[in-house]
Amino acid sequence: MLEGGGYHLDLHVDTPLEDAAAEARTLGARVLHLGPGLVIADSPGGFTFCLVRWDGESAVPGPLRTSGGVSRVDTLCLDVPPELYERECAFWTGLTGWAARPLPVPGFACLRRPAGLPARLLLQRLNDAVAGQPVRAHADFGCTDEKAVAWHVSLGARVAGTFPYWTVLTDPAGREYCLINREPEDGGPGR
Question: What confidence tens digit (pLDDT) does each residue in 85-94 have?
Answer without folding.
Answer: 999 999 999 9
